[in-house]
Amino acid sequence: MTVETPIKTAPAPATASVPGNEFDTSEFDAAVMGTYGRFPIALERGEGCLVWDTEGREYLDFVAGIATCTLGHAHPALVETVSRQIKTLHHVSNLYYIPEQGNLAKWLVENSCADRAFFCNSGAEANEGAIKLARKYAHTVLDIEEPVILTAQASFHGRTLATITATGQPKYQKNFDPLVPGFYYVPFNDIEAIRSAIAELDGGGKRRVGAIMLEALQGEGGVRPGDADYFQELRSLCDSKGILLILDEVQVGLGRTGKLWGYENLGIEPDIFTSAKGLAGGIPIGALLCKSFCDVFKPGDHASTFGGNPFASAAALTVCQTLEQENLLANVRERGEQLRTGLRAIAAKYESLFSEVRGWGLINGLVLREDVELNSIDLVKAAMSEGLLLVPAGPKVLRFVPPLIVSAEEVDRALSLIERAIVKSAS
Questions:
Q1: HSE-up of 27 (CA within 13 Å, CB side)?
Q2: Which terminus has fewer CB within 10 Å in the chain: N or C?
Q3: In the chain, what are the domains?
Q4: Rounded to whole angstroms, what are the CA distances from 406 to 66, 109, 275, 334, 338?
Q5: Pick from 322, 333, 389, 380: which is nearest to 67 by CA?
Q6: Secondary structure of the chain in the HEC alphabet?
Q7: Would you say 120 and 307 are in contact if contact means Cβ atoms under 8 Å apart?
């Protein structure tokens, strides 16, 4: 592999920081809650798959806002749309019809298994909506007094109180109890665990399983793809028992896996699924999508002040249409295979450090062996020093989630940079 120059300095744009006026992290930390362990760089501009910090250093961005900047940074189509829309009408209440929202909903239902859409601001909110919809369906259609939703161990569904309860990772729940009742955790990709949980909970009492909520691929849980056979058996099981199947597509939806939706990799259709992150390429929006038979919401049941406003909806529709116009799904499949091939070569070369590579499309994980001292944060820091931005997916998985526009040359560059970071970290 050719090793690139680690960090290049770009020509300073008109808005760049003046030397000597570096970003003051102490002022930031004094005013902003410390809810993030931030890395010591401040990013101020981007173009395509590149970003620059306040000191003019260039980085190849394989984080993309954590699988969010679908079209990369400053994509001309998105720039034109948001510039036009902010000058026209950026926000009105959902008390009125919003044409941009209707156009986005129409595109989503025409390009998925869903019949209806509800818009909010984030993945956590979309998942909250899915939980509420499933509970109302369980009460009003299935006649369950105390509905239970099964979720997976190592899952991640958001940071609100209900969604951290749905999240099968105790580290996210610590000190936030009492948690929301009505959730039960099972191992991922284990159909017998699902059967056992249903049998245990459906013992004739008030509690019964009303829904099963899973990720098509567990992102924060270590880039773990769902098994197609498991999901197909699960779909049949849900059909036979009248249980709703909910898929959290917040991280893998809208092309990230090389197919428009993660569930398409599994050969099934969910009853309800959620989208956010990459839906508007970095403009905040979330979507709850469902089939018409389980659309039991009525006026007043659920709402969102900002959800589906003209600005966010126009941005999202542009991202959706650009995916089609630029044939980005083909690019995701090709660049994803190129990336996995390169990562597998690295894993084989340094087999004492790495156990496997896993993922779909452009969401991939390089997995460290459990017995090595290195962790994913060590490698994220080492890669950053070489000019490559990456993100962990747990302590032993290094996650690669570049913009869907990434080029073959940029994938090769990323592979060179991560190998150099590995060599320096292991020495």
A1: 4
A2: C
A3: 25-68+330-426 (3.90.1150.10), 76-325 (3.40.640.10)
A4: 15, 27, 22, 10, 11
A5: 389
A6: CCCCCCCCECCCCCCCCCCCCCCCHHHHHHHCCCCCCCCCCCEEEEEECEEEECCCEEEEECCHHHHCCCCCECCHHHHHHHHHHHHHCCCCCCCCCCHHHHHHHHHHHHCCCCCEEEEECCHHHHHHHHHHHHHHHHHHCCCCCEEEEEEEECCCCCCCHHHHHHCECHHHHCCCCCCCCCEEEECCCCHHHHHHHHHHHCCCCCEEEEEEEEECEECCCCCEECCHHHHHHHHHHHHHHCCEEEEECCCCCCCCCCCCCHHHHCCCCCCEEEECHHHHECECCEEEEECHHHCCCCCCCCCCCCCCCHHHHHHHHHHHHHHHHCCHHHHHHHHHHHHHHHHHHHHHHCCCCEEEEEEECCEEEEEECCCCCCCHHHHHHHHHHHCEECEECCCCEEEECCCCCCCHHHHHHHHHHHHHHHHHHHC
A7: yes
Q: Which residue has the tokens 């609100």?
A: 160
